[in-house]
């Protein structure tokens, strides 16, 4: 592949808080399919050092960011959960600073840089990854962009060979049929936006924020919309990852027109959020997950949840 072609393709993900072994299958699958485009990952300092010494050093470009404080000090689970209230006062201060800067009509370079830095301390990488992706796109010339999770994603073929050239495309969770029918998604929307927005969006299908694809212009529009939502989150929504609520809100309120749907069993992406999704897929003689028409699925998300797909690599 020529350098110009390589420059046009970007896979972007966040691995802050992970160990190398948790993302190794993701990286190994890219090597196995012979992917030659760019891979950028958000990582913390320790993982960056591990990757630099690994066989994947030439596969991935690292953007090193600070650990989110609850992750760094393990305040979100385990024996240290009782210390979580100590994080609350700092969260209040950070929220007020970010919100105050967000009210400015024109922050200028310094104001935007400060807000960008502060929100990295306030919010989890599930949200801030979109801000880093937006910055990277502004600083580069990538023409086709795949945003994806890394811990539970594997590639079976080069995704850019099978994804549409233009437009914004999102993964759709087939079961259950709507946002209000799934307790986690219902809770996330209610926490981020309240009951009125849940009533407005609840009848729409669930779009998973774990894999989103688009051409440069479509992805810039999507990331700018996500950034606007992130900077306007209410204080109650800063305590938990809510990227999927933001993602579904901007899709189903029509902010970006009508995105394309990547459905399990019928596209280059399989989103295996429910065991019933597997009925729409099969396995070929090489042990790859395939669509109903026999075509190989390029991207398998949440493969590690089900015995049938845990062996994919």
Overall pLDDT metric: 91
SSE string, helices as H and strands as E: HEHEHEHHHHEEHEHHEHHEEEEE
Distance N to C terminus: 24 Å
Cα-based radius of gyration, to the nearest Å = 19 Å
Q: How is the biggest beta sheet arranged? A: 7 strands, mixed
- Counting DSSP E segments of at least 2 residues, the number of strands comes to 12
Shape: globular
What class would the helix/strand composition place it in? alpha/beta
Query: Count the helices. How many?
Result: 12
Which blocks of ≥5 consecutive residues have pLDDT under 50?
1-5
Instruction: Name the beta content range.
Output: 15-25%
In percent, how helical is the residue content? Answer: 25-40%
Task: Report strand order across the widest sheet.
Answer: 3-2-1-4-7-6-8
Commentary on this structure:
The protein is an alpha/beta fold. It has helices spanning 3-8, 20-32, 45-52, 69-72, 88-102, 108-122, 125-138, 159-162, 183-193, 195-201, 216-231, 243-252, and strands spanning 9-14, 38-43, 61-64, 144-148, 153-155, 168-173, 206-215, 260-263, 269-271, 282-283, 289-290, 299-301. The strands form three sheets. Strands 3-2-1-4-7-6-8 form a seven-stranded mixed β-sheet. A three-stranded mixed β-sheet has the order 5-12-9. A two-stranded antiparallel ribbon has the order 10-11. A hairpin with a 5-residue loop joins strand 10 (282-283) and strand 11. Helix 5 (88-102) packs antiparallel against helix 6 (108-122), helix 9 (183-193) crosses helix 10 (195-201) and helix 11 (216-231) packs across helix 12. The longest helix is centred in the last third of the chain and has 16 residues, at 216-231. The radius of gyration is 19 Å and the shape is globular. The two termini are 24 Å apart. Residues 1-5 have low confidence and may be disordered.
């Amino acid at each position: 592949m020529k350098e110009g072609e390589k420059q046009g393709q970007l896979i972007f993900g966040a691995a802050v808080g992970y160990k190398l072994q948790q993302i190794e299958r993701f990286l190994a699958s890219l090597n196995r399919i012979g992917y030659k485009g760019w891979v950028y990952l958000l990582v913390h300092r320790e993982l960056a050092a591990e990757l630099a010494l690994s066989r994947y050093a030439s596969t991935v470009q690292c953007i090193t960011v600070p650990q989110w404080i609850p992750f760094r000090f393990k305040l979100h689970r385990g024996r240290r959960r009782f210390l979580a209230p100590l994080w609350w006062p700092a969260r209040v201060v950070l929220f007020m600073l970010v919100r105050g800067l967000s009210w400015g009509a024109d922050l200028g370079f310094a104001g935007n840089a400060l807000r960008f830095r502060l929100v990295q301390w306030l919010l989890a990488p599930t949200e801030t990854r979109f801000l880093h992706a937006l910055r990277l796109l502004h600083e580069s010339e990538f023409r086709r962009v795949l945003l994806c999770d890394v811990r539970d994603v594997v590639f079976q073929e080069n995704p850019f060979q099978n994804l549409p050239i233009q437009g914004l495309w999102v993964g759709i969770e087939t079961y259950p049929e709507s946002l209000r029918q799934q307790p986690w998604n219902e809770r996330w929307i209610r926490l981020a936006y309240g009951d009125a927005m849940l009533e407005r969006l609840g009848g729409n299908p669930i779009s998973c924020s774990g894999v989103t694809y688009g051409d440069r212009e479509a992805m810039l529009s999507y990331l700018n919309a996500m950034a606007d939502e992130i900077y306007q989150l209410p204080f109650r929504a800063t305590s938990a990852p809510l990227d999927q609520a933001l993602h579904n809100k901007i899709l189903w309120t029509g902010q970006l027109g009508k995105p394309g749907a990547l459905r399990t069993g019928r596209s280059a992406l399989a989103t295996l959020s429910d065991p019933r999704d597997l009925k729409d897929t099969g396995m070929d003689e090489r042990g790859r997950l395939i669509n109903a028409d026999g075509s190989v699925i390029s991207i398998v998300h949440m493969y590690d949840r089900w015995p049938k797909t845990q062996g994919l690599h």
